[in-house]
C-alpha cells in the first residue's frame, strides 16, 4: 500500500492536535496501526488533496490521535494490505508540527539509540524455602546494575532489582516492566537462580521462584509453583519494546533455545551496522549453559558465567551488541567449566533480525 500524505489538524498555539493520513488502493487496505494501536479508516472525502492518479474515492482516510505518540514524540504508522504487504512511516511530533523521519535504517537506528530509554529487570533468587540456597545471585545482579548505570547510562530508576522473588512477584514484575517500556526502548531481563528442565513435561524449562517447591510425594503439584519459560516468552512477545535481551544464568537455561528459537543472528563491528541492528526489532536470548547444570560459584565471588559477562561488558570499547557479547564470553566460560553458553534469536517472540546494543556513555 502507498501512504500518500499526512496532514495535521492544528490548534492555535499548542501545535498539532491530530494527524490525518491518506492511503491508496482503498479496497485492498486491511489494517492501519499507530504505535501498535489499530485505527479506524474510511473513504476519503474531498477535504484532503492527494497526488494519486486514482479517483478520490479509492483512497482511505485515517486519523491518528496524538496521545498515541511515544514520550520522544514519535509515531510509527503501519498500513497493511490484504496481501500482507506493509508500508511504514515514522513521524515525530512537536510544537512546530509533524516531521517525517528518515526511512533509512541507519538513520532510524541512530534515532532509536539516541532517544529510546534503556531498562533492566534483574531477578536474583538466592535464598530458597524448599530447595538448596545459592551463593552468588545477589552479588551478580548488584554488580551488573552498577555497571549498567555507570558505564552504559541506564537511568537508576529504570534498573529494577528483585531479590528472592515468589512466582507471583516474578510474574508481576514482568507484567509491570512491559507496561512501562515504549516502542523505541530497549529492555534487558536478567535472571540468576535455580532452573529446571522437566523431561516428564515434554522437556520444558522453568525458573524456580524463591518459594518454589521441590519434587516429592508430598508435593505432587510442585510444577505449579515454578515459572515456566512460556510465560517469559509470552511477556516478550507482547512487549512494545524495540529490543529485548533475555540473559538467564540458571541450570538448563538452554531450554529457551530448544523451545522457541529458529535462527541465530549475525556478527559485525562497524558503527553503521549497529544502527542497522537498532532499526530492526529484536528478541534475543543469552544463556549461561545449554541443557545442563551450571556453576553457581567459581568466578571470584560470582558465577563463572556472570564473572565473564561482567568482565566483557567492563572491557568493551565502544558499542557492543548481544552477539558480540556472546562471542567474547563463550570460550572463557567453556574453558573454565562444563557449561556451553548459548545465543539465539527468539523469532516466535517477534524477533525481526535486530539485536540489543549496549551503548557506553559519552
Automatic annotation (TrEMBL):
Coiled coil regions in record: none
Q: Where is the Caspase family p20 domain?
A: 120-202
Q: Which GO terms describe its molecular function?
A: cysteine-type endopeptidase activity
Task: Look up the domain of life of the source.
Answer: Bacteria
InterPro entries assigned: Caspase-like_dom_sf (IPR029030), Caspase-related_regulators (IPR052039), Pept_C14_caspase (IPR011600), Pept_C14_p20 (IPR001309)
Which GO biological-process labels does this protein carry?
Answer: proteolysis
The name of this protein is: Caspase family p20 domain-containing protein
User: Which taxonomic lineage does the organism of this UniProt entry have?
Assistant: Bacteria, Pseudomonadati, Nitrospinota/Tectimicrobiota group, Candidatus Tectimicrobiota, Candidatus Entotheonellia
Amino acid at each position: 500500500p502507498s501512504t500518500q500524505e499526512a496532514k495535521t489538524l492544528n490548534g492555535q498555539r499548542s501545535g498539532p492536535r491530530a494527524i490525518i493520513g491518506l492511503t491508496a488502493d482503498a479496497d485492498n487496505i486491511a489494517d492501519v496501526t499507530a504505535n501498535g494501536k489499530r485505527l479506524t479508516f474510511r473513504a476519503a472525502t474531498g477535504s484532503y488533496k492527494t497526488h494519486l492518479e486514482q479517483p478520490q474515492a479509492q483512497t482511505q482516510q485515517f486519523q491518528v490521535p496524538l496521545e498515541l505518540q511515544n514520550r520522544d514524540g514519535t509515531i510509527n504508522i503501519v498500513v497493511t494490505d490484504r496481501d500482507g504487504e506493509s508500508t511504514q512511516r515514522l513521524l515525530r511530533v512537536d510544537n512546530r508540527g509533524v516531521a517525517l523521519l528518515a526511512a533509512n535504517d541507519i538513520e532510524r537506528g541512530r534515532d532509536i539509540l539516541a532517544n529510546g530509554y534503556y531498562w533492566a529487570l534483574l531477578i536474583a533468587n538466592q535464598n530458597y524455602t524448599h530447595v538448596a540456597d545459592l551463593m552468588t545471585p545477589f552479588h551478580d545482579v548488584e554488580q551488573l546494575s552498577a555497571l549498567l548505570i555507570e558505564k552504559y547510562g541506564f537511568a537508576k530508576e529504570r534498573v529494577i532489582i528483585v531479590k528472592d522473588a515468589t512466582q507471583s512477584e516474578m510474574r508481576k514484575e514482568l507484567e509491570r516492566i512491559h507496561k512501562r517500556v515504549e516502542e523505541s526502548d530497549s529492555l534487558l531481563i536478567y535472571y540468576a537462580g535455580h532452573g529446571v528442565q522437566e523431561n516428564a513435561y515434554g522437556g520444558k524449562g522453568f525458573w524456580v521462584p524463591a518459594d518454589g517447591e521441590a519434587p516429592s510425594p508430598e508435593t505432587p503439584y510442585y510444577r505449579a509453583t515454578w515459572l515456566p519459560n512460556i510465560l517469559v516468552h509470552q511477556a516478550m512477545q507482547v512487549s512494545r519494546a524495540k529490543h529485548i535481551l533475555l540473559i538467564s544464568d540458571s541450570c538448563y537455561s538452554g531450554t529457551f533455545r530448544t523451545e522457541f528459537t529458529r535462527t541465530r543472528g549475525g556478527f559485525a563491528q562497524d558503527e553503521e551496522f549497529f544502527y542497522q541492528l537498532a532499526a530492526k526489532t529484536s528478541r534475543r536470548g543469552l544463556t549461561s549453559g545449554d541443557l545442563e547444570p551450571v556453576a553457581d560459584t567459581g568466578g571470584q565471588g560470582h558465577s563463572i558465567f556472570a564473572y565473564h559477562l561482567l568482565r566483557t561488558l567492563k572491557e568493551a570499547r565502544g558499542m557492543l551488541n548481544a552477539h558480540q557479547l556472546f562471542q567474547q564470553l563463550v570460550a572463557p566460560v567453556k574453558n573454565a567449566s562444563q557449561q556451553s553458553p548459548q545465543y539465539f534469536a527468539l523469532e516466535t517472540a517477534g524477533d525481526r533480525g535486530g539485536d540489543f546494543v549496549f551503548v557506553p556513555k559519552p
